[in-house]
Amino acid sequence: MKKTFWINLAFQVGALVAAFLITTLILAAAGAPPFKAYESILRGAFGSPGSLRSLLISWSPLLLTTAGVLITFSAGLWNIGVEGQMTLGAICTTWALRLLQDTGLPPMMIILLGILAGVLGGALWAGLAGALKTFGGVNEIFGGLGLNFISMALTIYLVFGPWKRPGTGSMSGTQPFDRALWLPTFAGTELSPWALGLSILAVVFVYFLLRGTHFGLRLKAVGRNRKAAYLMGVPTWQYSMLAFLLCGALVGLAGAIQVTGVYHRLLPNISSGYGFLGLMVAMLVNYQAIWAAPVAFFFASINVGSVNLQLLYKLDSSFSGVLQSFLVLLVLLGEGARQRFLKRRWEP
Amino acid sequence: MDTTVLLTGLAGVLAAAAPILFAVIGETVSERAGVINLSMNGTILLSAMGGFATAVETGSLLLGFLAGASIGALVALVVAFSSITLKQSQVAVGFVLALACRDLAYFLGNSYVAVQGPRLNALPVPLLVDLPVVGPLLFRQNLMTYLSILFIFLAWAYIFRTRPGMVLQGIGERPAAAFVRGANVNRLRYVYTVIGGALIGLAGPAYSLSVKAGWMGTISGLDGIGWIALSITIFGGWNPLRAAFGAYLFSLLQWLGLVLQPSLPNVPSQVLQVAPFPLMILTLLLVNISDAEWVARMLAALPEGMRGLVAKFLRALRSNPPASLGVPFDSE
Fold first, then answer.
1. ipTM, 2 dp
2. Does B250 touch chain A (CB under 8 A)?
3. Optimal mutation site among A27, A329, A330, A344, interface B, most CBs of chain B within 10 A
4. What is the mean pLDDT of each run of 10 residues along chain A (348 residues)?
5. Of the candidates A265, A261, A269, A244, which has an alpha carbon nearest to the alpha carbon of residue A112?
6. N or C: less crowded end of chain B, CB within 10 Å?
7. What is the 3-state secondary structure (H, E, C) of B114-140?
8. Is the pTM value of this prediction over 0.95?
């Protein structure tokens, strides 16, 4: 038993080392001094109170998307449509804020209704992917991808069409909202305690939902073995649908927070890849909610730190994606190698 | 619109479909063997950048295309190794590779952005090019467009009309049966995944050295093509002929979007560019819907004569994946 522990650890550490070796080679190939580059990423993420605040601002949507896809993964669903669900959340929030901004309602009320609209919008889009799967036989991967493109088209249409700024529409998005409609922040900063609090709450919620409730257990049963769960009397498609709706609601909240707390307007590509990044975090933590928060924090720090790379070495900030995806890839491969090694050892 | 403009436009549609055809045929071969290569979107970007960089550095278009195909083969090898040897989820590894390759392309290609590079020239076929209509449409294309059309029929004939093609179908449908008949299932899956990957890899330079010559980083407009090609593979029902129809349809719709632009001033041009995407979902819905239980129930409620017609229409649209797609095979 103890031996297996060390073997597991060796494979996990080996995977991380291999990932860093590869990304170091990639940095060298791009003509950058690798260790200075890593250092500048760290400095960019943790170097100043300001950068630490940007890190927390970026952590919150990632926490929400990760929490969301942990639910769909538990149900055995590959919710690739998560990007579109976040976008729809942002669209619906913007729509509600535009609709209510001149009504004279108290600003806090408008923000709250806006966020609610975002949550519903995300759930609606996820529900659509679920309905396509349940009633149309369209695999959630392809339905989700298609819905991602539609949401992107819809955003661009709104930004350049009916919601364009006075004058001409531009890629910089719609007219920013009045300051009164911004999510309240810590004094003198752009960090909102509401965004942070809601996201942490979401992860805690998902952790307990999957771990300690009747619903969570049955959901996992559906994910592990659909047929067996059905025979045991679990209403399988209803559970899949609920998983989609819950995931969409959390991811829609992420979109709503980007609109009310970060950008204060609708932008093309407002999801900024947080949806796909959430899928990667969930894979890296092996679908266990307990590790979601620290790993999402780590990924957010790579995102924020890589901006420094661009400023200092004129390197493309897409290096953050390279670093994150190679980490996940090598950990997946390492896990496969570990299973193969143990199988060969114990069952000759 | 006069005929010359129309013919030039349609010839452009054939040329623009070439990269999608390579990708779709490659994915079809791979999935026929039972392996989903979900990395396609990243592979196309990385091979576009790699092929372009190689062609710029060496001045050789041939080496550029070879580099693209090698990149595609290499990425497919990772998919094959992790799913066949390590028995990990093809979807998970493919998805991560799709993101890894995309970001790698943007990162390593940074110094090639907006660099002037070589471009594949048209290669008119003597005599045939002077034919009315068909000449300018079909025979004034470049080599890759000819190849893409040739590959449709080659792949179709190989899969459905040759003995190794039958084995290929077998390892994707009933690997155990193929194994009993002496096929080395896992080795063949490796081979076909890598060949399919090389074809997908050709799609990259087919863009960066021909259809959309050059490398523009994140604004190259290639992000998303791989996901489209994946849906066309399904729409194509794992049959190269039907997949080719899907690829041409998509290409035609994109061209129509451009042509119709001036007559629809209220619709932003970016929206028409992405208009084919929702249509792809609709077609996916159509090809899958006959499997759903409620459709069968609705059909049963229709009057006799109409029921037969509707059922026939749905059956014609329907496409079933290879039975063992994504399922690892263990000979024990």
1. 0.91
2. no
3. A329
4. 82 91 90 87 87 91 96 92 96 94 88 95 95 84 86 87 78 82 82 91 93 88 85 87 96 95 89 93 89 93 87 82 94 91 75
5. A261
6. C
7. CCCCCCCCECCCCCHHHCCCHHHHHCC
8. no
